[in-house]
Amino acid sequence: MTIIRPYGDTTGDGMVQLSFTLPVPHDKRAEGAALQLAGKMGMEPALLVHAKPMGDGFTFFVVYGKVAHLVDTEQVQVVERDFPLLSPKEVNAAIRRRLRRRLTVVGACIGTDAHTVGIDAILNLKGVAGEKGLEYYRELSVTNMGAQVSVPDLVETARQQRADAVLVSQVVTQRDAHLQNTRAMSAAFREALPAGKRPLLIVGGPRFDELMAGELGVDRIFGRGTTPREVASYLVHALAGSPA
Ligand code: B12
């Protein structure tokens, strides 16, 4: 069965919950406006289940209602992992065997973005979700440049370190900053280094569309909930060939 619909109270009843904020103070008209929006979005009937003032002149709403839309799971497009998930031991062994030197990684949070928790989770020894970060891998040499790194500084450091891979984090998506910064970064690497000398370009962050790698000029995008082991396995796959 590839055609499905949302489930709320009974199977296939089409019930969904949606939250949003409107720029109006909380009163009866505001609640009516929220229901009008829900109706226009195809929720019919829609029920207001929560409304809360959010500072001066704003109200936060949760509405619950029925939609008639169907989802065809066969039409879903996602980036599936197309490389084997390796243990740290396997990653180290593959790099030693295939590269015969350490694999060099430079990471940074670029632009004005100061959200370093994500890139630290991937790079720092302590890692995330019970997995150690890339610094734990003996055959990886990791430089973490931290927050608010400019693209020229990143390119310069990557060049100095002869980076095999550059790992960039972008968490803020206001005014598409993550897309613009990523495009600027990939363009700068294309300009600074000839093909074949360019490091593998990887970006990550919770609000990227993983399907946009080609459009943004990077080799791979990692989204929400990525773990260091996935990244290390990808590095081996892309730079040292997956072990047989
Ligand atoms: C902590 C935090 C902060 C801290 C950051 C501290 C720090 N050193 O990082 C502080 C208080 C400084 C902060 C400031 C701001 N923040 Co803030 N912040 C958050 C918060 C609560 C958590 C982010 C976080 O740490 N997540 C945990 C990590 C582990 O998850 P992650 O980043 O998704 O990373 C994972 C994956 O995405 C992936 N990944 C991420 N990067 C990379 C990179 C690579 C290479 C790879 C492979 C994988 C990867 O792997 C990671 C592990 O699984 C979020 C809300 C939220 N709940 O997410 C808001 C949030 C990100 N902040 C937000 C905003 C608006 C701001 C400010 C602009 C607020 C203000 N007006 O001042 C400032 C901006 C500062 C700046 N110049 O960037 C918004 C962004 C909205 C948007 N659309 O862009 C959010 C979503 C809150 C919200 N709902 O409004 N923030």
Automatic annotation (TrEMBL):
Domain B12-binding: 102-244
One Pfam family linked to the record: OAM_dimer
GO molecular function: cobalamin binding; metal ion binding; protein dimerization activity
InterPro entries in alphabetical order: Cobalamin-bd, Cobalamin-bd_sf, KamE_N, KamE_N_sf
Coiled coil start-end: none
Record-given protein name: L-beta-lysine 5,6-aminomutase beta subunit
